[in-house]
Amino acid sequence: MLRALTSAATGMIAQQMNIDTISNNIANVNTTGYKKVRAEFQTLLGQVQRSPGALVTQGTNQPVGIEVGLGVKTSATQRIFTPGNYVSTGGQMDVAIEGDGFLQVQLDDGMIAYTRDGSLKRDANGAVTTTDGYLIQPQITIPQDASNITITPNGTISVSTGNQPTQVEVGTLQLVKFLNPAGLSSIGKNLFIETPGSGQPVQGIAGQDGFGTVLQGSLEGSNVQIVEELVSLIQAERAFESNSKVIQAGNDMLKTANQLR
Asked: What is the mean pLDDT of the chain?
């Protein structure tokens, strides 16, 4: 059996994964806080027929060897945490993180998740939540009669209540960061959870110790560049097509060999 058949088949499988990854990026081009994903590949173990440095006649060593590769595999899908474009919304509860950091969110089962999506809301009790109703941690409650909400770059939330001209501080948006954010696991709804690969979260105050600042009235858009993704899509399609032609060529060679008399 020709090695080209199986090698090209692994190439088609890898490019299918690449196209799936690119399509998900394009689908999330307008998702708040989305971070694009890049597929990465590794060559499979080659079949060695003669090793470099093998001893040959007259006591010399073979300078090069003979090795035939056996294809490719997907090694990882790397999430790229470059900043997205910041879009001004004017919403008092909308925040964007300029720099490193995630907001902390408590899930229904008590687990803590992390997000860059700063489209915050208030529930019926005044608690600050995500769009899906998950509580921001540490929990912050805004009074029902709050008439003006101010969020400073360090995450401090102050409100005006009633007819009082002075604002009262009601809480602070605390940020966390990770040594390896690419190791976080996505669970949907713009949320991530920590894994052994990401390391443990480090808590801090916005604007200090390498943490980003909080920008009120704006949201961080997706960091997907649609032109780059379309170019990558064309490259993946052509690579998929080329691998399919290798399989066709291998099939023609086997057909020719079968017709020998």
From this structure: 91
